[in-house]
Amino acid sequence: MAEIRLENVGHSYDDGATFALKPITLTWEDGNAIALLGPSGCGKTTLLNIISGLLTPSTGRVFFDGVDITDLDTAKRNVAQVFQFPVLYDTMTVRENLSFPLKNRNVAKDVISARIDEIAELLGLTKYLDIRPQKLRSDLQQLVSLGRGLVRRDVPAILFDEPLTVIDQNFKWTLRGRLKEMHNSTRHTLVYVTHDQTEALTFADKVVVLNQGEIVQTGTASDLFLAPQDEFVGFFIGSPGMNFMDASVSNGDVSIGSTLIGSADGDRPIANGDIRVGIRPEFLSLSSQGTGTDVKINRIEHRGGYKLIHADGPNGNVVAKLANDASFVAGEKAHLIFHPERTYLFRDSKLCGSVSTKGVKQ
Amino acid sequence: MKTRNNKAWFLVLPVILVVAFTALLPLMTVANYAIQDVFNPQSRIFVGMKWFYQITNDQLIISAFKRSFQFSIQALLIQIPLGIAIARIMPKSGWRASAALVAVSVPLIIPWNVIGSTWLIFSRSDIGLGGFLLNKLFNFDFTSDPKDGWGLILTVDVWHWTPLVVLLVYAGLRSIPQAYYQAAAIDGASSFAIFRYVELPKLRRVLLIAVLLRFMDSFMIYTEPFVITGGGPGDATTFASILLTNIAVGQFDVGRAGAYSLIFFIVIQIMSFLFYTVLTLQDREEVTKTK
Amino acid sequence: MSLAAQNLTLINNGEVFLEDISFTAKPGITVLVGPTLSGKTTLMRVLAGLIKPDAGSITVNGIDVGKTSVKDRSVSFVYQQFINYPSLSVYDNIASPLRVHQPRISKEEIADRVTEVAKMLRISELLDRKPSALSGGQQQRVAIARSLARKSDVVLLDEPLANLDFKLREQLRDELQRIFSDASMMVIYSTAEPLEALDMASHTIVMNEGRVQQDGLALEMYSTPKNIPVAQAMSDPPLNLISSSTTSSGSESLGSALKDRFNGPFTVGIRPHNIALQSKGANDIPISGKVRIAENTGGSTYLHLDLVDSQKLVLEFDGSQRFDFGSAITVYLDRSAVFGFDSDSGNTLFSPSAVR
């Protein structure tokens, strides 16, 4: 278990013409579960491979517990890594696959067998231990791959590269829970790469959101959901993502079109001019009474536990997430009600303040 | 509704014709000779299975087969491991990889009889550089010492054909996804363990092809011993195919040679089938995959 | 126009892959929902004519296509993997099936169709590129465009979004729905995610273990599933299933608290979002457990509890809250959202009266 520190670490696959990962500096505390979240091509796997040593960064240094290990090769770093698709040793049984990392490091036989039993139990592989993994379904194969990553106790970190991609929907839930439970008891430093927000948010103590080779925001699930610092985070976290509407600020008043929605509230005064209002579907509601920003409802999606109301907003589609008893129909006119604490202002795609509805009639 | 379209069969027809002319008809001719005693093109008599009985009891022929078999086994035992070893240390990318590939392929693009002549001259203890040195050091003389003659032919075969194994294995190694090497590095596997548990299993199919090709070719070896040793010294390098030519062309014993050819053909078929069966045993186990 | 399957059965090496599958698909989207290995892909391949069924028939517009070869059927197939011709430009990729089409299609018509579908899938500006220069989402758009350009009667989409990023999936799903919902062709769309079926809000077929479990509207199956496999296939996060003998509060069991719904032992099913941390009224059924883990997604939290008899329960609530692992807690099941299933057959005994 170790603290991981990156100093100015960046990587370019084309000798510096473009950076797949722009130089970053950060520290991850020992024992934390970290998720690297972003769309494909955002640099998250590059970052993971730099930590495991499969890739040497173009710039910067990597430290485990303060020791510079940038030039150390993968085997010597002693980290564990689980890949996106099953990577197995064909000629070995499941048991031999699981014990391989321990055997290579000369762990005593009885320790190995006890550890294998424990991991097999955790992953539900006990009854498959003595057959070859080739004979298993691909999701079970991935579990064996996962098991090989978890089997060592003495690793500074366990790295996961989208490990649940081939796992069945329902089983994903169980498995993620078990991984989290395991982390609660062992407190390994875990780094988990994924494009799936639910996986990242539920699994990690801290989520690092990456986009186009840069870290956009780092925070807990609540930070990212409730207070996105960047429009990208607003859009990428949450399903569906945040609604954005063009607005303007004039002497502290925020208006969408000609409708005043509240007053701008920021750490620093917000200058007059164009601005974007961001609000999550969870915090947006609709009303057919009174006045406000008018919208026309165009589609209602009933998702079972809740309804998504899609409406034509002042500039583009807006979505509100409402309870099952919301009784709007397509074609109906309504106006938007903004949650007073959860309506944010963005300028140049960065968070700059929020909208306070105090003293404003809706 | 349309009836089943059988047009595709016409496309296969040319291939069937070519195969008939290149393989089936000559084979039938040979089979025809094998059951006759041919004195000259005008006079021949039907002898039934006589040649086959004779051949299977002919010590000369049996020992030639044994010799070929021994030679093949030795060739395989040297060429397969050597080929794997060379393929593993070859550069993986860049201009060095291309250069290495070209260098390795050279023996494969030289005409066979040129190879024989080159080695013949090179190994002669009177005028050949290699032969002269070896003669001084170890008293090497392939024209008089049966062991030296055998060793020389084996060396030539290794020199000539190991590159084929190298190319096959090299291609096989390049097709192993990088993730397997990465996983092995993470698991702390030694270089030997990587070879044993990652590369060897992934090379199984390629090696099957290499073993089959090398077995068949080395079992039928002809040009090199013909040019270099002529089957000698004594009958040390009189392999099955050399003896066959002696019988067919030298003695013009066409009927006996025909029967011999058929037996030769069948032996190679059986051996290849055995190799194939043993080497694909695991594949067939996998077919019973649990879904 | 319609596509009908009658009693399709496929058995291989004694293993049943499809069993007695019958359904009718009308123009528009039909969603096939089911877990991995439920037979969705096999059924698609049978519908495409790539596998011959051991029994049963497939009719398109009333005509049996059982003896028609794959290339003569008016079917296009989009796979989970993005399959395009790597050496052809996007334009040529989309045009390729049209160029070999019989009867011949004129060059102008091909150009028109390619432009039209490219516009529909928003890849107009990518037409000159090679597939390798595209992102995964764009590659899948090209594959879908190719299947659309053919204007075949049947379009089969086998988990087309499964290999895409979560966010891209969301986007493309909306677009596919827009494109296909008023299409004149029969679109069969398979997925493992119930949300996709609910989103498409159209004709849905739930499959499990090679059989059709239920056929109807997605929301209908969500609220009144026929059996446990359907209820599970239509629940994400997974449905909680616990025994009715589980102690509710004090000495009362869940079964006795629900005896007005069903008298006798059964399996209780309830979705995580219908369990709450606080009681909302006398209608709720309290149940105690120990906190195992809490997963916070920012907007909501999934709390995993251990019940008696190593049974497990997951509940979802808005917001977040701190819990000590292993601490005892009482949560409340919304009585009106409970399902009852026969413990042996898995058949539904009762469902909630409204969509919950």
Please explain how this structure is put together.
- The complex is a heterotrimer of chains A (362), B (291) and C (356).
- Chain A is built from 9 helices and 21 strands.
- Chain A has helices spanning 44-52, 74-77, 94-103, 109-123, 138-150, 169-186, 197-203, 221-226, 231-236; strands spanning 4-11, 21-28, 33-37, 59-64, 67-68, 80-82, 158-161, 190-194, 206-211, 214-219, 243-250, 253-256, 259-265, 273-279, 284-287, 294-302, 307-313, 316-322, 333-338, 343-347, 350-356.
- The radius of gyration of chain A is 24 Å and the shape is elongated.
- Chain A starts with a strand and ends in a 6-residue tail after the last strand.
- The mean pLDDT of chain A is 90.
- In chain B, strand 1 (36-40) and strand 2 (43-46) form a beta hairpin.
- Mean pLDDT of chain B is 84; it is low at 287-291.
- Chain C has 356 residues and is of the alpha+beta class.
- Chain C has a 6-stranded mixed β-sheet with strand order 6-7-8-3-9-10, sandwiched between helices. A 5-stranded antiparallel β-sheet of chain C has the order 13-17-14-15-16, with no helix packed on it. Chain C has a 4-stranded antiparallel β-sheet with strand order 2-1-4-5, covered by helices on one side.
- The model of chain C has no long low-confidence stretch (mean pLDDT 89).
Summarize the structure.
The complex is a heterotrimer of chains A (362), B (291) and C (356). With 362 residues, chain A is α+β, with helices and mostly antiparallel strands. Chain A is 24% helix and 34% strand.
Question: Which characteristics define this entry?
Answer:
heterotrimer, B: 291 residues, MetI-like fold, 3% strand, globular, C: 356 residues, alpha+beta, 9 helices, 24% helix
Shape of chain A: elongated
Major sheet summary line of chain A = 6 strands, mixed
Helix content of chain B: over 70%
Cα distance, first to last residue of chain A?
54 Å
* CATH domain topology of chain B: MetI-like fold
Q: C-alpha Rg of chain A, in Å?
A: 24 Å
The low-confidence runs of chain B, each spanning 5 or more residues with pLDDT under 50, are 287-291
**CATH topology of the largest domain in chain A, anyone?**
Rossmann fold
Classify the secondary structure makeup of chain A into a structural class: alpha+beta
Based on Cα principal axes, name the global outline of chain B: globular
CATH class of chain B: Mainly Alpha
